[in-house]
Amino acid sequence: LAEESPDSAYHSHGSSLEEEAAERMDDEEQERLLNYWQSVGRGHQVDVPRDMAEPIQQLTRNNNPQERQSIPFTLIQRKEKLGDLLYEKRQYGKAKWACIKMKEKQYEQSICLGFMKLMRYICEQNSSGLYLGITVPIVTIVHTNEAQSAMTQAVTVAYYLPEVLQDQPPHPFDSDIIIEEWPATIVYSRSFRGITNEDSIMREINLLAAILESPELCLRDTFIIAGYTNPAAANRHNEIWFLQRP
């Protein structure tokens, strides 16, 4: 065997030291992000398990606005008053979504836990073994009683599959996640900021119902909360969607 020169020995040793340092920094970043999510989770009475460290890190690294794919829609109408946008009427096409039904005591718990399950699916826990990419918004289907005075506990958190995966969506490893095809839908959308909980959602439902000229054209007990920022963000950008009756 040829002897290893001191120079090559230095380079191989140096590169392994660099790799070790990079791995250590990687672990530290993972730990920092996990700690942050765990502290936010506690605020929502949600336990963020250690096995979420890698999906959280993947999602954070890939969460540049340029990397996110917006769900395509056709704008039908913008309703304004004194320069303020009251709502938009949009048409969304038929598409496949990864959905998970949740029924925690509080809405915030349901969306945090549902979002974590979807994150695992997005971050390689699927039959393709690949990172699927983030699409926005992540949506939550909520239901109210007929009088629109209270929300029911059951919600569905859903992730729109990127265009390239629409024909053949990767199969989720988590049996709670179901791939559903949603029909083309017309929605009336109004944006709002801040946290989403039972009170803020009921307030936004009543507000949009009062603004719409013909609220009777929409479903009375099914609404969608569209989230453009992750549930850990403080000042979230959200929309309330009313669904036009088929």
TrEMBL record:
MF (Gene Ontology): heme binding
Gene3D superfamilies linked: Regulatory factor, effector binding domain
InterPro entries the UniProt entry points to: Reg_factor_effector_dom_sf, SOUL_heme-bd
Acidic residues composition bias: residue spans: 17-28
Region (Disordered) residue spans: 1-28
Membrane-spanning segments: none
Domain of life, per lineage: Eukaryota
Family: Belongs to the HEBP family.
Identification of the protein by name: HEBP2 protein
Name of the encoding gene: Hebp2_1
